[in-house]
Amino acid sequence: MKSDNQPAPAVAEAIHSVAEKLTRRNFIKGVIAGGATVSAGYLFGLSGCSSETETAAVATVTPAPGTIERLISLNVNGMVRRVDVLPQETLAMTLRYRLGLTGTKLGCDRGECGACTTLLDGVPVYSCSTLTHTVRGRQITTIEGLEGPNGELHPVQQAFIDELGPQCGFCTPGQVMSAVALLKVNPDPTREEARQALAGNLCRCGAYDNYLNSVMRAARAS
Amino acid sequence: MSYNLIGKDFVPPDVMGKVTGKAKYSEDFRAEGMLFCRLLLSPMPHARVRSIDTSEALKVPGVVAVLTADDIPAPPPPTRPVLTNEPHYVGQPILALAAENETAAQDALEKIKLDLEPLPFTVDPLESLYPGGPNALTEGNHVISQGFQSSLKTTKWTAGDFAAVEEGQLPAGEADSEWTYGDIEAGFKNAKVVIDESFVTASLAHQSMEPRSAMAYWENGKCYLHASCQSQSFPFQFLPAMIGVEPENLVFIAEYCGGGFGSKGSAYSDMTIPAHMSKKTGRPVMLRVSRSEEYYIGSARPGFQGRIKMGFRADGRVTAVDLYIVQDNGPETGFSDYSAAADAISLIYTPESMRWRGIRVQTNTPPVGPQRGPGRNQIAGVIEPLIDKAARQLGIDRKVIRLLNNPTSDTKFGPNKSTLTSAYIKEALEQGAQDFNWEQKKQLSGQRNGPKVIGIGIGQAHHPGGATGFDGLVRITPDGILHIHTGVGNLGTYSHSGTSRAAAEALKYNWDHCIIERGDSSKHLPWNLAQFGSNTSFTMTRTNYVAAMDAVNKLKEIAAMDLGGTPADYDIGDEKVFLKTDPDQHLTYAAAAQRAIELGGKFSGQEAPGDINPMTKRSVAGLAGTGLIGVAKDNLEIKGAPPAFGTAYMQIELDTETGTFEITDYVAVADCGTVIHPQSLATQMKGGAVMGIGMATLERHVYDPQNGLPANVGLYQTKPPSYLDVPPTMKVSAVDKPDPMNPIGARGIGEPIMGCASAALISAISDALGGHVFNRTPVVTDMIINAANGRAQSHKPLQTNTF
C-alpha cells in the first residue's frame, strides 16, 4: 500500500491534461458529427425561447461559425413543420426545444438508453444520435404522433396502461416507440422477439416484464 | 377483511401522461427568457482552488453570469456544498455559468482558467486507515454522526492491525460505532460450524434514467422550482433555507420523477443551482444535467470492505455473529448503510448473540447516499451464500436453515430487543418454495450439460416498512368530489395513488369521484414523509385514513346538527351520511360539504388541529372555505416496528467456459401486509429483481487508483441491466396477511424485493460452482471463469473501486 499519495506536480498536470483531453475529445466528436469546422458545436446552440429582451441580446451577438441556423422543413407526426436548425443539431433537440415535443426524452444523449427513440419512416432510431439535417424528407413519428385524430390511444399505449407498463415513466415513450415499430413489421411477435426488439431501451426501474406483457397484449389486440 | 378498493387493481391517474408523452419532467418546462446553465467540474480527485479567472469566459457572446462557491457559502465538510473551492472528487461542481444558450455556456467554460493546487487523495478506505495513509479530506478521513450533525475525524489503524491483510483478512482496528448483545465468545464456543470470511461489495451508481435537471425562476418574490425529486412535501424541511426563501414563498413542482432509488429522496444541493442562478440573473434558468454529470452528482451506493464470523449449532441455529464493516463513505456525509446491514442480520437470522463494529471512511469518489435497501441489500448478497455454506457443512436443507433462524411476529431482535408489528417471512419463504417447487428444483443443483451447470439459489432481505406521525388532508367539495391531498412524491411506484385509496375506502367513496391533489406545493399539500425507505404504504395509508375519519366525524356532526340526534346515530354509505334507524334521513356528501362551508370553523378549515405540522396548517388555511376539510395528524397506536421482507428463489444455467449465466426461473414472495394494489406490487417486485441482478453481477465503480479518475461514467460502462440480462418472465406474489398496526393492514415493501433477488442470484452462482463463495460483488464473468477453472482471481483481496 502506498503511504503517501500526494501527487507530484507533474502527475497533477497529467491529471489535468487527461481530464482536459477527455473533454476535448467529446468536444471534437461533437464538431465532427455536426459537420462544422470550428468549435462551438459542443452542445446545444439554441436559446430557451425568444423573448424580446433575448432577441435583442442575441442581435448584438456575432454568431460563431457553426452556429448559423438554417430553415428546413420536417415532416413530424404527419405535419410539415418549418424550423430553424443548427448544422450539428440532433433530432432530439429539435423535437424538444424547437417543436415543443417533450415526450421524446433525453436519458443519456449518447445512444445508450433509448429514451429518445423516435420513428423514421417507421424505423426506430435514437433521436439523440440522429442529426436533424439528415432527416429531411423522412416521416418522423414521435410519441405525440401516435394518438388517433380524436385523441384515441394507439393500441400499444392502451396496452401499456392495461398492463401497468411504466414505473417512473421516463423511458416509457421510447419503449412505446420501439414496440410500435416492432408490431409494424411483426404484428404477432413471440415474447423473445419482443425482448430482442426492445433491448435497446433501458429501464432503471426494471419494468421489463410489464413492458413485454404490454407488447404481447398490444399484439393480441391489433 | 373485504374492501371495495384496497387490494384491487386500478389505473393510476398519472399513467396516461407517461404513455402519451404528456407527463412533464423537470427538463420539459420552459419559461420566457430562460437561460441555460452549465457546470464546471473538478478534473482532480482532491484539490484547492487557488484562483478562478473568468475574464475570457465572460467575454464569450451570450454569457450572462457566473456563480462560484464565493456566492453560495459552503457549509463545513462533510456536508455537501452547492459549489466548492475544495473539490473532493473528480466531477464535483466548482462553478456554474449561465448563458443565452448551452453552446455559449460550454464555450465559456472552456475559457475559464482554473488554477488548482493538488491535494492528497484516496479511492480505497483501507489505504486511508493505513498508518500514514492519505486523508480524503483535509479535515479528516472519516465521519462521525450524531443525529443530523456530522463531523470529521482522523483515525489511523496500526501496522499490526493490517498483519493479515495480504491473506485477505480484513483488519479490525478502531471503529467509529459498535454494539453487542449476548456473549459471542460463548456463542462461537457452542457452535458446531464457524464461518469466518472477509468480503468486498462494490460501490455503484444510482443511475436514474432522468438526470437531475432542474429549472427555476422567481416571480413576485416567489421561487418556482421544477426539480426531479422522489418526494413532494418532505424536501420542504430543507429546501427553503437552501435557496434562501420563506417556505410560503417556494413553489416546488415535482409531479413526475424519472427514477430516484434513494438518490432524490429529499432536497439535494444541485436542484438549487438554477434557483440561485435565477436569483442572480433575474431570468429563468435551466440546468440540464448530462449522463456523465449524473454519475458524478447523482449519488451511489457505498461499498463495503467487511469481515463476518458466524457460528452455527448442529441444527443450523445461528449462535453468534461478529461483523465488522468498513464503509466507503465517499467524500461527504454519506449514509448509515454499515449499521443497517447489521440490523438486517440481527433480524433475519435472529442470532443468539452478536457484535457489530464499523467505520465509515472518506474516499475521493462521488458522494454516496441511500440506494434502495441501503446496507441491507449489500449484506444480503454477502450473507445468504454463507448461510448456504453452513447448511452444506451441516448437511441441512438450505430452506430449513433459514426458516429455523427467521423471526416471527413475537421475536425480539437486536441490541435493543426491538419488537415488530408483525412478521411473516417464514410464510413468504414457504410460499415461495411451493411456487418454485423447491423440493424438486434443489435436486437439479450442480447438474451438468456440457459446459453448462445448473445453480439453485435462495435470497432474503429486510427493510423497515413504515413510519408514523405525519399528517393527512382530504377535502369534500360541494360538487361531491373527494380531493385527497397528498405530499407523497412520484417515484414511479404509484403509491401516491394506492395510499390515497385508504381515504376513499374509509369514506366509502366511488373511486371515480376522487381526485388526487399532488405534485405541486401550491396545491395545498400536507406534511408527509418522503417517498423512501419502503415506508409509504404504511405511513400514508395511516395519514389518509385519519384524515378521512376526521371527515367522517364531521359529516356525522353536520348531519346531527341538521337532521337531529347525535353524531353516533349516523352512518355513511353511497356518499351520503344517513340516520342509522331511517336511512331516508340523510345528507349527500355534496350537501354536507356546502353546509361545512356555511358553518366555517373546523368544518371547512378556518380552524385546524393544534398538533399538525406548520406546512399542513398553511395548506388547510389555503383551502379554508372551499369544502369540508378532513385533517389530522396520525396519532394511531403503534407498537413495534413494521418490517418489510422479500424472499426469492432462483434457478440459473451457468456456462463455465464463458462465465455467463441465464436465469431460467425466478420466484419471489413479499411480506408486506395487506396488498394495496396487486399490479403495482408485482411490477415493483420484478423491477426490484432487475436492480438486484445488476448489483449482484454487473454494476460497480471503477477508479484509477494512481490518479483518482473514474473509468465508468456512461451507461455502457456502469451497466444497468437490460432486457437481455434478466429473465423474460418472473413469478411474484405476497403473503397478504394484514399488519395489526395499520388501518388496512398494509406495510411497505420497495427495498427488500431487490436485495432478495441479488442474494438469490449470488447464492445460485455459488451453488452452480459447488458452493464456491466469492465474498465479492458484483460477481462478474471473469470471476466466474476463474472460479470454475480453479484459477486465482485477478483482483487482490479486499481491493475495492477497481476492476
Short note summarizing the structure:
The complex is a heterodimer of chains A (about 220) and B (about 800). Chain A has about 220 residues and is of the alpha+beta class. Chain A has helices at about 10-35, 50-60, 90-100, 155-160, 170-185, 190-195, 210-220; strands at about 70-75, 80-85, 115-120, 125, 140.
Explain what the structure shows.
The complex is a heterodimer of chains A (222) and B (803). In chain A, a hairpin with a 2-residue loop joins strand 1 and strand 2 (79-85). In chain A, helix 4 crosses helix 7. By secondary structure, chain A is α+β, with helices and mostly antiparallel strands. The model of chain A is unreliable at 1-43 and 47-61 (pLDDT under 50). Helices cover 38% and strands 11% of the residues of chain A. Chain A folds into 3 domains: 12-42; 68-145, Beta-grasp domain (Ubiquitin-like (UB roll)), CATH 3.10.20; 155-221, DNA polymerase, domain 1, CATH 1.10.150.120. Chain B folds into 3 domains: 17-119 and 216-290, Aldehyde Oxidoreductase, domain 3; 301-465 and 641-788, Aldehyde Oxidoreductase, domain 4; 467-633, Aldehyde Oxidoreductase, domain 4, CATH 3.30.365. Chain B contains 21 helices and 33 strands. In chain B, the strands form 9 sheets. Chain B has a 7-stranded mixed sheet with strand order 3-4-1-14-11-12-13, sandwiched between helices. Chain B has a 6-stranded mixed sheet with strand order 8-18-17-16-9-33. The chains are: A alpha+beta (222), B alpha+beta (803). Chains A and B meet through helix 1, helix 2, helix 4, helix 5 and helix 6 of A and helix 1, strand 1, helix 3 and helix 18 of B.
